[in-house]
Amino acid sequence: MLFSRHRTHLPTPEEALKGRPEPGFAVPDRHTVLGNPLTGPYPEGLVVADFGLGCFWGAERKFWQAPGVWTTLVGYQGGHTENPTYEEVCSGLTGHTEAVRVVFDPAVTSYAALLKLFWESHDPTQGFRQGNDVGTQYRSAIYTHSPEQQSEAESSRTAYQSVLTGSGYGEITTEILPAGPFYAAEAYHQQYLDKNPAGYCGIGGTGVSCPIGVAKAEG
């Protein structure tokens, strides 16, 4: 499957794997770093945001390190197959991308701050890949939970496109869509880089900072 068309071709609902009505594995109760529950329902007043920015191991760590984040959870989103497995997602036959669910306290941080972290933590111009990781499951995505999130995400994309273009990058390929079902990933993927500090992390940004605060990032 390494070089098959499925890795760079999103399946239609008819082409996608059928899936299953219930997940085939259990998800841990609590976050290994933050100590809070992984799955909802979450405490009143917290807000959910969903992002895809390449391999979810490194992506999740970016967000659990951010101020105001209450918990994070990795999973699969944006596709057709119900309750997929990691192997199925990697086949390219589910349509999902590797996603991070971020639950945050809006009294401490903001959706805008998380969007800034999202844009600056990866290269959103690469289509069905992120660095050396190739496949539809590595595509850049924002899945929104309100009209306000949708509008803010779209505005941030426009702002970041402007500074990326000025720095010689191409068109942003990030999909911004209302959130559909989020399927939690297997236990060994949750907080993977906390359990395996020397593990693989394919996350890397462009070096161009995103508004809030438009400037060339140092480094």
Automatic annotation (TrEMBL):
It catalyses: L-methionyl-[protein] + [thioredoxin]-disulfide + H2O = L-methionyl-(S)-S-oxide-[protein] + [thioredoxin]-dithiol; [thioredoxin]-disulfide + L-methionine + H2O = L-methionine (S)-S-oxide + [thioredoxin]-dithiol. It is an enzyme of class 1 (oxidoreductase). GO terms for cellular component: cytoplasm. The keyword Oxidoreductase applies. GO terms for molecular function: peptide-methionine (S)-S-oxide reductase activity. GO terms for biological process: cellular response to oxidative stress. Its EC number is 1.8.4.11. Has an important function as a repair enzyme for proteins that have been inactivated by oxidation. Catalyzes the reversible oxidation-reduction of methionine sulfoxide in proteins to methionine. Belongs to the MsrA Met sulfoxide reductase family. This is Peptide methionine sulfoxide reductase MsrA.
